[in-house]
Amino acid sequence: MAQVTLRDITLTRGTTAILRDVSFTVEAGEFCVLVGPSGCGKSTLLRLIAGLDDDASGEILIDGQSVVHVPAARRNVAMVFQGYALYPHMTVFDNIAFALRRAKVPTAEIQTRVQTAAKILQLGDCLQRKPASLSGGQRQRVAIGRAIVKKPKVFLFDEPLSNLDASLRAETRFEIAKLHRDMGSASMLYVTHDQVEAMTLADRIVLLRPVLQSPGLGSIVQVGRPMDLYHRPANLFAARFIGTPGMNLFETRVAGLTDQGVAFELHGQRCHAAVSNAGLAVGDLITVGIRPEHVQVSLDSSHAGDAAPNRVLASVTHIEALGEHSILFTNLLGGPAEALLAKTTDESVRVGDSVVLHLPASAMHVFGVNGGAQVR
User: Where are the alpha helices (DSSP H) in 183-290?
Assistant: First the structure.
């Protein structure tokens, strides 16, 4: 097992800031996913850990030992790239064995390692085939096989599924999760912009943001277990990025403070969020949010009105039917047009219907000024 620690990694190329103050630890045997929008430095971090780039300041430690000046070949890590980079003239066996032969590993051990990797990845029937005859998912598994046979302490995956179609992504995602379970002694760092991959694969997520769009702020937004980021986003950036569809967010002002939380108005309706009101004052500008699946939808408008807390009237403008549920696109009524998304299993709702949206106080999020930290 290998622990990977990054301390104060900062990288500027020319006048462009790529990474700023990146510090986190991947525990031995952990599956850590780096996620964030394009340009936030996810792949660059992997290349720095692998030793393919060496132009950042800060420290990188593997098993407690600094590897900043250690050549890539001696870091005991293996990287799986977005492209398969297979040799088209070689068989699957030879592709997987290539690095071992270059390292002059004995033939018998090469045979054993390749067969073991092929069994783990279900490639046993493909070893004598060439890459052109394989599916995209099989080619990616061959690329992963090349990493497995090196017996690294750390696996680095750089968006390995981005070239696959939806069904193959799901299949290969399962294979990678199974690989982690089967090889529990190896630490894995995985880069993706796909939230489904991040949420389903990770023991822990590191959410990054582009530093060019965040003057004065570091690259890391939040680190935590997937459901921690989902249910308790640290700030507006995390709230917007994590979740599909995204969280509904509205700017408003504090209308009152009680022992039960924070009161505010939304389109003329009195609403309440069951959160701590520490640090807030009446009149403060805040952003309130609620995830679409927590919005309760009713076609019965008889319960809406000025006296009904946390209920707003809306008109359905579009519906995305997804099978087990539908996404309702609505416009709030009684004020400037403002959109709100809701998930529902009610198949009777139609475009043009007027609906009542109940926003449970316990499901509301409150964020401070300028997208700052969530009020707890």
Answer: 195-201, 226-231, 236-241
pTM of the model: 0.89
CATH of the domain at 236: 3.40.50.300
- Sheet harboring 57-62: ordered strands across? 16-26, 4-13, 57-62, 65-66
pLDDT in tens, 107-131: 999 999 999 999 888 898 999 999 9
248-263 pLDDT, tens per residue? 999 999 999 988 899 9
On whether both 58 and 207 belong to a single domain, the answer is yes
Contact indicator for 277, 261 with CB cutoff of 8 Å: yes
For residue 255, give the nearest of 271, 244, 243 by alpha carbon. Answer: 271
Give dist(CA 160, CA 144) in Å, integer. Answer: 9
| Closest C-alpha to 233, from 244, 253, 247 | 247
Residues 187, 106 share a domain: yes
HEC per residue, 11-26: EEECCEEEEEEEEEEE
Range(s) of the domain holding residue 85:
4-241
The residue among 98, 138, 99 whose CA lies nearest residue 121 is: 138
In this structure, the answer to whether residues 231 and 334 fall within a common structural domain is: no
Is the pLDDT score of 244 beyond 50? yes
Spatial separation of the C-alpha atoms in residues 175 and 186, rounded to whole Å: 15
